[in-house]
Amino acid sequence: MSLKGRHLIDPNDFSLSELDEIFDLADRMADDRDSFGNICNGKILGTLFYEPSTRTRLSFESAMLRMGGKVLGFSDASTSSVSKGESIADTIRVLSSYADVVVMRHPKEGAPKLASEYSLIPVINGGDGGHQHPTQTLTDLLTIRRYRGTLENQTIAFCGDLKFGRTVHSLISAMSRYKGSKFVLISPAELRLPGHLKSSLLEKHNVGIYETENLEEVINQVNVLYMTRIQKERFFNEADYMRLKDSYILSRSKLKDSREDMLVMHPLPRVNEISYDVDDDKRAVYFKQAEFGIYVRMALMALLLGVNVNVNRK
Ligand code: NCD
Fold it and tell me: How far apart are CA 123 and CA 113, in angstroms?
């Protein structure tokens, strides 16, 4: 099945070979960005951001502009008709005639899925509550694939807020489809990965899991260390956040005996969880990861729009 006209709500909406098609194109775009500068001429991306974002919104905008397309939308729902009580269904129906593809971020889990049911154009989930963040996951998968050459047989440690972190939920669910994946889950007891994710995804795919509260205990045994921010905005009270916010701080000295080729990843924004002295370590790839987010979003939108991507090909 072609990716043209499809929605991306959950990373598992696409088969592994469809994901490879996106990553292969993203690799070509990363190596030769200028050749793709006009492939979306005349196309418009709509951005519906009902929740704050820097990277996701700007990387989508940049991706569309770099392919010669245009962008319209809002980044503050209080300035749109949503504040007058308009439903998501009506907003998306109208936007379907204003744009050719839309990205939506919403605090409510399931909002982009609902939008996709009423939309006449492809809907991309730009993050829904604590649920999913599929384009961050595509970025993360592309990063691992570029550094490792494969997505199979990876032992990934997730560290921080595994309860509310949607990037973690999305990436775990996507990685559990690859052969040989093993997960090490590092969090305070209150911020453990939700049980339903553990049972429905991990048992189904028979993936090895090890849970611990201690980063130092496991840091030397993993291929990828995926650090995350404690998700302040999803806490019910400030006191709990204050108590947990600095649970893990990765510093250069903690990396001392970790594998030379381990990847330290982070979806960003970081708060305190990675000290600045880690930034120059060769294992730190989080800024490259953010850059790869542009190429993966370019590739994704080009394929959903069905534009001609055969530039420079005989
Ligand atoms: C993440 C998010 O919004 O979930 N940010 C992002 O899109 N790169 C991670 C976070 O906010 O902690």
Answer: 8
Same domain, 77 and 156: no
How far apart CA 220 and CA 273 sit, in angstroms, is: 18
Phi, psi at 181, each rounded to 5°: -70, 140
268 lines ligand 1 (CB under 6 A): yes
Is the CB of 131 inside a 6 Å radius of any atom of ligand 1?
no
Average pLDDT of the chain? Answer: 94
Ligand 1 atom nearest to CA at 56: 7
Quote the pTM value: 0.95
Q: Are 82 and 93 in contact (CB under 8 A)?
A: no
Q: Quick check: CB of 270 below 6 Å from ligand 1?
A: no
Both 140 and 214 in one domain: the answer is yes
pLDDT (tens digit per residue) in 245-264: 999 999 999 999 899 999 99
Within-domain flag for 1: no
8 touches 286 (CB < 8 A): no
Question: Total domain count for the chain?
Answer: 2
Domain that holds residue 145: 134-290
Atom of ligand 1 nearest to the CA of 290: 8
The mean-pLDDT minimum among 26-35, 78-87, 170-179 falls in 78-87
Q: Among all chains, which residue has been given the structure tokens 């970081």?
A: 270
62 and 35 together in one domain = yes
Per-residue pLDDT, averaged over 138-146, amounts to 98
Instruction: Assign 231 to helix, strand or coil.
Output: coil
CA dihedral of 100, 290, 210, 9, whole degrees rounded to 10: -10
